[in-house]
Amino acid sequence: MTLRIYNTLTRRTEPFEPLAPPRVTMYVCGPTVYSYAHVGNFRTFVLGDLLRRYLEYLGFEVFQIMNITDVDDRTIKAAAAAGVSLQDHTRPFTRAFFEDRDYLRIRPADVYPSATEYIPRMVELVQRLLERGLAYRGEDGSVYYAVGKFEPYGRLSQIERRELKAGARVASDEYTKEDVRDFALWKAATPDDEAVGAAWDAPFGRGRPGWHLECSAMSLTEVRQRFGVETLDIHAGGVDLIFPHHENEIAQSEGATGRPFARYWVHGEFLFIRGTKMSKRFGNQLTARDLREEGHDASAVRMLICSTHYRQQLNFTDEALEGAAEGVRRLADFRERLADAAAGAAAASAPQEAVDLERGFREAMDDDLNVPRAVGALFTFVRGANRELDAGSWGPPEARAALATLETVLAVLDLLPVSEAVDAALEAWVAERLEARRAARKARDFAAADAIRDELAARGIEVEDTPQGPRWRRRGG
RNA sequence: GGCGCCGUAGCCAAGUGGUAAGGCAGAGGUCUGCAAAACCUCUAUUCGGCGGUUCGAGUCCGCCCGGCGCCUCCA
């Protein structure tokens, strides 16, 4: 079995074969830092995270690039409105993005190039396209890509010719385009651009990059400098980017290099809030910070994202999030139980349940990253292993082996909260209370014992009596 | 109008043409001083509707109903 992945370029699920294994180069379209990224953005970033982790599980050496878009219409507009420079506006949101990324336990990419740091590379790319006759200067001082001269244009999005609806609004700067499909590579500087410091000198005029240019310039530069190639193995992003963004990236990159830009195009579907697409317009934007501030553990968010295949729309509701949180709780309790059972032992050969887990996990993930099915295999394992533990048929060596398999799978999915350190004072207090409860129970004074349990519960401590004695944990909040 | 997607139990959701994974919630039971956790049993004779192909369809084809996305710098 090998990984098969759906490639938007061919509209087929294909065996994954990187250009130069074991290396895999991967580019995931990152955030535009004009505001906080919302959970829909993060769904895509989690997809990138899962894909990258699974590739590593398979033994590939992944080099992941994620761009930070810190200059575009929205960042400039927001900075101008706030009366601050572009940098002053984007810096805090960039920092916030990294915080949110860590909250959601998305493993950091290898590099995070930001658009403003790659202006010279972008200028070079525009020059190259001008030299090759694929770009032209408009009367407004902007530079446009001549889509009609790039024969494969439209292959990714399967759009032969973009038709503008009659009466559609046409921005003033578009009057100088030779073809309605042409898009700006370089936009002539406006007073607003100058006011916030979003204008740079270039041989073809002062201005700033068009939206699509940065991804081409940054990804090509990174893989060329590091690996001497001009083709990415994987390029990922949200479905909305297929057109025009990724279509235009292909035109820019392949027009300049003459080589395939990306071998596999992976697109994640949208996340909806109560059945509607998230957008400013509907006032239903939900950011990762909102979730964190509401006290939701990131594990529940990851679990919810993992419950739906990446090419299916995901409906984010409070009820679904609660359900996911309960699943996380079950899984976390189980891992703790298994770890206790494995304490101090060396691993035996893997028990059948563990063998089934790993096989089920791989089969599911190999099938176009079917994470929901992989999670199904995980819970099937939980039930089977609990049964064995109840029956006492696993000794510590079996438990150790099963735990090892579980950890392997969780290294990819990362669905469990990191255990927080318990302060010594609380620990001592709980120990004292549990001892008092033990004495009360021994004296068969159950009223007193239950009162102590309630007292602990009031402080968020949950007690469970097991054959090995009472166990406790912090729960809820 | 063009391109495309979806409709599976109360909720979320997987499903290679061969007889409906998994999670949450719910009911009953085992265990327990009582709980909790865990385990066991039950909860869709059926996959939006109607036709068709087939020995056999949630899975393929057609039509219809309902919902959604892209085609405007939105992940």
Descriptive account of the structure:
With 477 residues, the protein is of the alpha/beta class. The protein has three domains: 4-282, Rossmann fold; 314-413, Four Helix Bundle (Hemerythrin (Met), subunit A) (Up-down Bundle); 424-474, no CATH class. It has 15 helices and 15 strands. The strands form five sheets. It has a four-stranded parallel beta sheet, with helices on both faces. Mean pLDDT is 91; it is low at 162-174. The protein binds one RNA strand of 75 nucleotides through helix 1, helix 7, strand 12, helix 10 and helix 12.
Topology diagram in text:
Layout (H helix, E strand, L loop, with lengths): L3 E4 L4 E4 L7 E6 L10 H19 L3 E6 L6 H10 L3 H18 L15 H13 L3 E3 L5 E3 L37 E6 L2 H6 L10 E3 L3 H15 L4 E7 L3 H16 L4 E7 L2 E3 L2 E2 L10 H6 L4 H9 L7 E3 L1 H25 L9 H15 L4 H21 L4 H18 L10 H19 L3 H13 L2 E6 L2 E6 L3
Parallel strand pairs: 3-4, 3-9, 9-10, 11-13
Antiparallel strand pairs: 1-2, 5-6, 6-7, 7-8, 11-12, 14-15
Helix pairs in contact: 1-13, 2-3, 4-6, 6-7, 9-10, 10-12, 10-13, 11-12, 11-13, 12-13, 14-15
The protein binds one RNA strand of 75 nucleotides through helix 1, helix 7, strand 12, helix 10 and helix 12.
